[in-house]
User: Which sequence fits this backbone?
C-alpha cells in the first residue's frame, strides 16, 4: 500500500498537472536562493521523512527525502560513517532530498566524489504523479538507464525525489590540515602536482595568499603525507572546512549580506589563475573558483572564461533574482533536455524556470 | 541484405576495405562474448574519422536502418549482437590515445583504445586508469563506457562512471554532442552519467576523457580460507564495519577455487568452503597497518588459514586465480554461462544455498565468484550446449538466480549489462511505468529507435507476452494503449 503522505503529494501533483499549474518543490528551503526565480505553489517534502534502512557494513543508507540532512549525518556519524560529498548546509533544516536535487558538494568532492558518484537509487514521483523506482540499494547496478544519477543536480525539474539510497564511506581515522603561503598560480600547481601522487588529500582551499590542504586517513598515511608535503599545521581546521562547505567563511559574507554577487566557476582544475575582477576562493585543487563579483566582473566575460577553461559559470547568489543563472546549453543538448523533461514532467509542473529558462 | 541505395552511400563514405557485406566477412561480428545469441548483420562498417561516423549515421537515419556500435566484442550480455536488418558500426579503428595531461590527471582517448593500453600509456607519469574489468587486456574503453564496466578494484576506486570527465559522441541524426567537460561538473542535467551504461542506445562515442589515478606505492593481498561461506561473509562485514575500504575484496566458493587451482596452481586451499582475497594499497606505512588489522579481523571471524603476499610476484599469483576464474571454468566444462546479479551482501548465504539446491535440481554444476565488497555475484553455470535441452535448462536456472537477486533487494546485472540476455529479467525488476520512462529516454535521443534496437530495455509487449509484466499498484498503465 502506498503511504498516505505520498498519496497526498501525488494528489497535489495530479491536480497541478491537470490545470498545468507550476509547483515549487521545497524541503527546508535552505537553497531557495539557488537557481532561477521561484514559481508556483509550494509542494513540501518534509512530511515524508525518516531513515528507512541503514546497514553500515553494506555501506548503504536509504532514507526518505524529507529527512533532515542533520539527522542523516548524525545517524551516520554514530556508526563512524559520512556522506562523503559533504553537502553544504547553508542554513538549519536542509533535507536529504534537497541535497541530492541541488547536486551541490563540499570541499571533499574533488577527492571522494559528488552526489552523483554516491547515489545508488531513487524513488520519485514524476510530473504525472507516478511513483517510480530506479537504481537500488546495491553498489553495482547497470539495469536500465541511470535515472538515479540524472536526478542529482536536476533541481527537481524531473520529479520529486521521495526516497534515496546513498553509498556511505567511513569517517577518516585522522584529519590534519597544513597551510602554505603562496600565490594563486603556485597553489593551483601544488594542488595538482600532489593530486598526481598517492597522497591522501581530501580538500584544498586557496584564499588571500594561503593554500590549505587537508589530509585524511589512517595515522601512518597522514604522517607520511605530512612529512612529504611540509607546511604549517593548522589548528581548529575542522571549523575552517565547515565554514567553506557551508559558506560561513568570511569570504562569502558580502554575498550573504546581499551586498555582492557570488559566482561559482567550475573549470578544469589546472586552469591558470585569472583576475576575474573580484575576490576569489579556490577549492577542489583548482576545479572550483568562487568569485565575489567586483565592478569589473562582466557576466559575459566570466562565462566565456569558464567555457574556455572547459567548464561553466553559475550566478550562485545574486542580489536579486532575474538574471540568467546557469550557463546556457548548446542547441543539441538543449533539445535533449527538453525531451527528457517531457518524458518525466510533460506538463512542466515542477520547478518551472529554476534550472533553465526554457522550462 | 543491405538496401542498394544505402550501400551506395556507405561505399561513397568509406574505402572498400572498411565496408564488409559478404557473409564470410561479417561472420566474425555475428556475436559478442555471449555466444548463445548470433545474427549476421546486413553490413559491417569500420570508419576511422568522426566525419565518417556522422555521414554513416545520417545515411542510416534517413533510410531508417538500425546501427549497432561495437568495440572489442568482449561483452557478456549480447549488447553487440547485430540486427539482421542493420549494420554493425565497429569502432576498432578509433584506437588513438589523443593526449595525456599528467598534471590534470586525464587522458583523451578514442573509444577503440583498450582499457589496459590507457594504464600502460599513463604509467610513465605514475598514473593509471583505475577500473579493471577482467577482460581489460582486450576490452575497449568505448565498451566500458557503454556498459559502465566495473572490476575487482571498484569498491575503492569506482566504476567507469566515476572515472570519466567527458564523452563526445554522435546522435543517430548525425548531430555531435558533448556530455561533461574538463571541469568536475557541468551545466544542466548529468547526461554523462546517463550516457554511461546506456549500452549503445543513445549515441555513438567518438572521444572520451578519462580520469587517471596515482598509482599506489604498494599493494598487498591476504588470502583467507573459511570452512563455511557464512563465516566468510561475516568476515567481509567485519572488515567494512571496521572502517576499512579494501582495494579489492573477492570471494570464491569451493567449485570455483578448485577450477582455478587446476588452471593457475597458486596453491589455493582446496578444502576450504570459501576463499577470500583482501587487498590493501597505499603507502607502505598505510598498507602495513591495514594488513595487520585485516589479518586480525579475518582471524577473529574464524579463518582457518591466512596467507599474506610477500612481494609483487606473490600478489599477482594470488590474484591470477581470481582473474582467470572464467577461463578456468571454461577448461572444466564444454560451455559455461556467467550470471551477473548484485545482492546485498547479507543475503549471500541464502542466495548460495538456493543456487546449490537448484544446481542439484537442474543437474548442472555451478561455481560462484563474488565481488564480495560490492555484492556483485557471478555464478558460472557449467553446461554442454551439445546435449539436447541443456542450454534451455541453463537459461532457466540463470533466470531463477536473477529473480532471487531481485527478491533479496538486488539487481539482475551489476556490470555486464542487460543486452539481449536479461531482457526478460528486466520485466521482473521494473514496473511497466518505469520501463516506459526508459523508452522515453531512448526516444529523447533516438526517435526512431535505430541505435542498438531491441537491447537493454524490453518492450512492454514482450513483458506482457511472457506473462511477467509486473503489475504496479494493481493496475496496468494506460490499459487502452497497444503494447508495442
Assistant:
Amino acid at each position: 500500500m502506498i503511504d498516505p503522505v505520498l498519496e497526498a503529494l501525488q494528489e497535489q501533483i495530479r491536480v497541478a498537472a491537470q490545470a498545468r499549474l507550476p509547483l515549487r518543490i521545497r524541503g527546508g528551503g535552505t537553497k531557495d536562493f539557488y537557481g532561477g526565480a521561484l514559481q508556483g505553489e509550494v509542494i513540501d517534502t518534509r512530511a515524508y521523512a525518516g531513515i528507512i534502512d541503514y546497514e553500515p557494513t553494506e555501506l548503504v543508507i536509504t532514507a526518505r527525502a524529507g529527512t533532515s540532512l542533520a539527522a542523516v549525518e548524525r545517524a551516520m556519524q554514530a556508526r563512524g560513517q559520512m556522506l562523503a560529498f559533504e553537502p553544504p548546509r547553508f542554513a538549519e533544516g536542509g533535507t536529504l532530498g534537497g541535497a541530492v536535487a541541488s547536486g551541490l558538494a563540499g570541499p571533499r568532492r574533488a577527492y571522494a566524489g559528488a552526489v552523483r558518484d554516491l547515489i545508488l537509487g531513487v524513488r520519485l514521483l514524476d510530473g504525472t504523479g507516478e511513483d517510480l523506482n530506479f537504481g537500488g540499494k546495491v553498489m553495482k547496478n547497470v539495469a536500465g538507464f541511470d535515472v538515479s544519477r540524472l536526478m542529482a543536480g536536476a533541481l527537481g525539474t524531473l520529479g520529486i525525489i521521495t526516497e534515496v539510497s546513498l553509498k556511505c564511506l567511513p569517517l577518516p581515522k585522522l584529519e590534519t590540515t597544513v597551510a602554505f603561503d603562496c600565490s594563486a598560480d603556485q597553489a593551483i600547481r601544488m594542488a595538482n602536482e600532489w593530486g598526481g601522487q598517492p597522497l591522501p588529500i581530501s580538500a584544498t582551499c586557496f584564499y588571500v595568499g594561503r593554500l590549505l590542504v587537508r589530509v585524511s586517513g589512517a595515522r601512518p598515511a597522514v604522517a607520511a603525507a605530512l612529512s612529504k608535503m611540509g607546511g604549517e599545521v593548522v589548528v581548529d581546521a575542522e571549523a575552517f572546512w565547515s565554514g567553506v562547505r557551508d559558506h560561513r567563511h568570511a569570504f562569502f559574507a558580502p554575498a550573504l549580506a546581499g551586498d555582492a554577487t557570488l559566482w561559482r566557476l567550475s573549470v578544469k582544475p589546472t586552469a591558470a589563475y585569472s583576475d576575474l575582477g573580484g575576490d576569489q576562493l579556490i577549492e577542489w585543487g583548482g576545479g572550483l573558483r568562487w568569485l565575489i563579483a567586483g565592478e569589473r566582473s562582466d557576466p559575459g566575460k566570466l562565462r566565456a572564461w569558464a567555457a574556455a577553461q572547459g567548464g561553466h559559470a553559475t550566478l550562485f547568489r545574486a542580489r536579486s533574482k532575474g538574471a540568467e543563472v546557469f550557463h546556457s546549453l548548446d542547441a543539441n543538448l538543449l533539445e535533449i533536455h527538453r525531451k527528457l523533461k517531457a518524458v518525466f514532467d510533460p506538463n512542466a509542473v515542477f520547478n518551472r524556470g529554476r534550472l533553465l529558462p526554457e522550462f | 541484405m543491405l538496401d542498394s541505395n544505402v550501400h551506395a552511400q556507405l561505399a561513397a563514405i568509406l574505402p572498400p576495405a572498411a565496408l564488409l557485406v559478404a557473409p564470410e566477412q561479417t561472420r566474425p561480428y555475428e556475436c559478442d562474448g555471449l555466444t548463445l545469441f548470433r545474427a549476421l548483420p546486413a553490413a559491417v562498417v569500420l570508419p576511422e574519422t568522426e566525419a565518417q561516423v556522422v555521414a554513416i549515421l545520417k545515411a542510416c537515419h534517413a533510410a531508417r536502418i538500425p546501427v549497432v556500435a561495437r568495440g572489442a566484442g568482449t561483452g557478456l550480455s549480447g549488447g553487440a549482437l547485430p540486427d539482421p536488418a542493420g549494420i554493425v558500426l565497429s569502432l576498432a579503428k578509433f584506437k588513438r590515445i589523443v593526449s595525456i595531461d599528467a598534471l590534470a590527471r586525464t587522458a583523451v582517448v578514442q573509444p577503440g583504445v583498450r582499457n589496459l593500453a590507457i594504464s600502460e600509456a599513463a604509467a610513465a607519469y605514475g598514473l593509471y586508469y583505475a577500473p579493471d574489468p577482467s577482460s581489460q587486456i582486450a576490452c575497449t574503453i568505448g565498451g566500458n563506457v557503454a556498459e559502465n564496466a566495473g572490476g575487482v578494484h571498484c569498491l575503492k576506486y569506482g566504476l567507469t562512471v566515476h572515472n570519466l570527465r567527458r564523452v563526445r559522441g554522435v546522435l543517430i541524426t548525425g548531430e555531435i554532442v558533448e556530455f561533461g567537460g574538463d571541469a568536475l561538473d557541468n551545466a544542466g542535467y548529468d547526461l554523462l552519467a546517463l550516457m554511461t551504461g546506456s549500452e549503445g542506445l543513445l549515441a555513438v562515442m567518438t572521444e572520451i576523457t578519462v580520469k587517471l589515478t596515482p598509482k599506489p606505492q604498494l599493494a598487498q593481498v591476504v588470502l583467507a580460507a573459511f570452512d563455511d561461506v557464512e563465516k566468510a561473509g561475516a568476515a567481509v562485514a567485519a572488515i567494512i564495519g571496521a572502517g576499512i575500504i579494501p582495494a579489492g575484496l573477492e570471494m570464491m566458493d569451493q567449485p570455483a577455487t578448485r577450477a582455478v587451482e587446476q588452471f593457475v596452481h597458486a596453491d589455493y586451499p582446496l578444502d576450504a568452503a570459501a576463499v577470500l582475497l583482501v587487498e590493501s594499497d597505499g603507502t607502505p606505512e598505510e598498507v602495513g597497518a591495514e594488513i595487520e588489522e585485516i589479518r586480525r579481523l579475518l582471524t577473529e571471524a574464524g579463518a582457518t588459514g591466512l596467507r599474506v603476499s610477500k612481494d609483487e610476484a606473490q600478489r599477482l599469483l594470488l590474484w591470477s586465480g581470481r582473474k582467470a576464474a572464467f577461463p578456468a571454468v571454461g577448461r572444466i566444462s564444454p560451455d559455461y554461462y556467467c550470471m551477473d546479479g548484485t545482492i546485498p551482501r547479507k543475503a549471500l548465504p541464502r542466495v548460495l544455498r538456493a543456487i546449490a539446491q537448484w544446481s542439484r535440481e537442474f543437474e548442472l554444476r555451478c561455481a560462484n565468484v563474488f565481488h564480495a565488497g560490492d555484492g556483485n555475484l557471478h555464478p558460472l553455470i557449467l553446461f554442454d550446449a551439445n546435449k539436447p535441452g541443456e542450454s534451455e535448462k541453463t537459461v532457466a536456472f540463470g533466470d531463477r538466480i536473477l529473480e532471487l537477486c531481485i527478491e533479496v533487494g538486488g539487481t539482475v546485472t551489476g556490470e555486464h549489462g542487460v543486452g539481449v540476455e536479461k531482457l526478460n529479467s528486466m520485466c521482473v525488476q521494473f514496473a511497466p511505468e518505469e520501463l516506459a520512462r526508459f523508452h522515453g529516454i531512448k526516444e529523447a535521443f533516438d526517435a526512431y529507435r535505430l541505435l542498438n534496437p531491441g537491447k537493454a530495455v524490453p518492450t512492454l509487449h514482450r513483458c506482457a507476452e511472457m506473462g511477467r509484466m509486473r503489475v504496479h499498484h494493481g493496475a496496468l498503465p494506460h490499459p487502452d494503449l497497444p503494447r508495442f
About this structure: The first helix of chain B runs from residue 4 to 13.
